[in-house]
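Hi V.,

Quick status before I head out on leave. The structure for the redesign project is tokenized and pasted below; the design run finished overnight.
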């Protein structure tokens, strides 16, 4: 009876032990049988022979994009993306839900009031989270609360700051979905034509652009798109990640034009405003003396204060895209963006490429001397006493403090925060004159401010 209750493998083991004593096989044969049995039982335990080929269990992670001739697959992909984006859009809080959230937060504020701001405690914050609905659940976490917690002695957060945080998140997701609708490839980036379509359809929603003539729309769109691509596509791949567009401040500047009461100063400083776009395009037309829609080297030499050196302009026409030796509006926009934003790494990269004549990745004494010689020649033309290159060279190296005392790289210029000054000294007589007379100019500014203070008193 006891033997009958023993598990079947017990009897099998006993028989195998008996056989083992009379087994006359070699060690290699026994080892092979042992391996075969182990593989067999292990495979059965793991779920059958199909599991033996582990590559069959690797989940598919690559899906080929449909080709241009696969029209049906392309349509299917577009429709599925549209449905997905619609579903994501429905997950966002609408105006009514945001208003309801505000009422709940206001109802649960905790005294005392901190200045003019209503505050909420963590306990009340969790209560609001339970009543606000499933769409709000992701905003009511300990992490979000801790992120907004500052110096309140009672451990509370500002209701207004929290609500602004929610609004910002909702706006970012709305904008992400809106941009994705123009992502024809569906790969998370926009090409130039995609971004042009987005901005063109955005124009009617921006009150500050109401005065623009429709005939100017194409030039406005070109002007706006160039800023995105100049700063966000430094390798000139022809596409920008949607993630990068959301992370920079350019969309904020563009959507600032929804404000009907935007001040004149804000409009002038905003690249995307109508006055700014008209200014840039107007400058281009004024430079184009022969009215052929393109700029020659001689026409571009009148840009700004007309003090850019001929050597620098030669390099511009050598390095950047031209048509029969003349510059179109798009290339001109890159030129303007570089010279108007010389503190920015992308602008410094543009100018550095021109200064680095031999494409070595650094500027040496020869490079600096080559460009500064043109400044010295211009000084002679204007009857000014030329400045010694040796002195200027020492000042440049002192300002930049490069890792290699004989070479200045682009990264050295960026790290020094003096790249705008250095490039101005080398390419623009007016820029050099401003640097050379900086102490006099500062003194004059101080005198002017003191005079103004006396007048006010």
């Amino acid at each position: 009876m006891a033997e009958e209750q023993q598990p079947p493998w017990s009897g099998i083991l006993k028989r195998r032990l008996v056989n083992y004593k009379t087994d006359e096989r070699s060690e290699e044969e026994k080892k092979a049988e042992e391996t075969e049995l182990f593989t067999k039982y292990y495979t059965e335990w793991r779920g059958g022979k199909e599991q033996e080929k582990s590559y069959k269990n690797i989940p598919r992670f690559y899906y080929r994009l449909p080709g241009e001739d696969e029209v049906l697959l392309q349509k299917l992909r577009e429709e599925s993306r549209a449905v997905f984006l619609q579903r994501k859009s429905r997950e966002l809080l609408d105006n009514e839900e945001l208003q309801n959230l505000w009422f709940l937060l206001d109802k649960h504020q905790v005294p005392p009031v901190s200045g003019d701001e209503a505050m909420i405690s963590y306990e009340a914050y969790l209560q609001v989270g339970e009543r606000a609905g499933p769409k709000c659940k992701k905003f009511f976490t300990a992490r979000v609360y801790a992120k907004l917690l500052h110096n309140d002695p009672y451990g509370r957060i500002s209701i207004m700051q929290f609500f602004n945080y929610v609004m910002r998140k909702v706006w970012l997701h709305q904008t992400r979905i809106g941009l994705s609708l123009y992502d024809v490839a569906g790969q998370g980036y926009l090409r130039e034509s995609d971004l042009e379509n987005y901005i063109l359809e955005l124009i009617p929603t921006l009150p500050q652009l109401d005065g623009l003539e429709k005939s100017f729309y194409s030039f406005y769109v070109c002007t706006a798109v160039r800023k995105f691509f100049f700063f966000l596509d430094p390798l000139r791949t022809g596409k920008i990640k949607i993630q990068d567009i959301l992370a920079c401040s350019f969309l904020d500047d563009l959507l600032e034009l929804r404000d009907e009461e935007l001040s004149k100063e804000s409009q002038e400083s905003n690249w995307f405003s109508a006055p700014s776009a008209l200014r840039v395009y107007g400058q281009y037309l004024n430079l184009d003396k022969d009215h052929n829609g393109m700029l020659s080297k001689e026409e571009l030499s009148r840009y700004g204060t007309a003090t850019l050196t001929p050597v620098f302009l030669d390099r511009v026409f050598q390095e950047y895209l031209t048509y029969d030796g003349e510059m179109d509006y798009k290339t001109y926009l890159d030129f303007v963006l570089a010279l108007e934003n010389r503190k920015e790494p992308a602008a410094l990269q543009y100018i550095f490429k021109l200064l680095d004549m031999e494409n070595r990745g650094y500027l040496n004494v020869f490079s600096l001397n080559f460009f500064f010689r043109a400044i010295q020649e211009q000084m002679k033309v204007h009857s000014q006493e030329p400045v010694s290159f040796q002195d200027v060279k020492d000042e440049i190296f002192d300002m930049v403090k490069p890792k290699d005392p004989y070479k200045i790289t682009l990264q050295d210029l960026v790290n020094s925060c003096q790249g705008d000054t250095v490039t101005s000294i080398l390419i623009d007589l007016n820029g050099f004159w401003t640097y050379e007379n900086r102490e006099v100019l500062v003194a004059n500014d101080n005198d002017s401010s003191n005079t103004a203070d006396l007048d006010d008193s």
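Above is the designed sequence. The mean pLDDT is 88.

G. will cover questions while I'm gone.

Best,
W.
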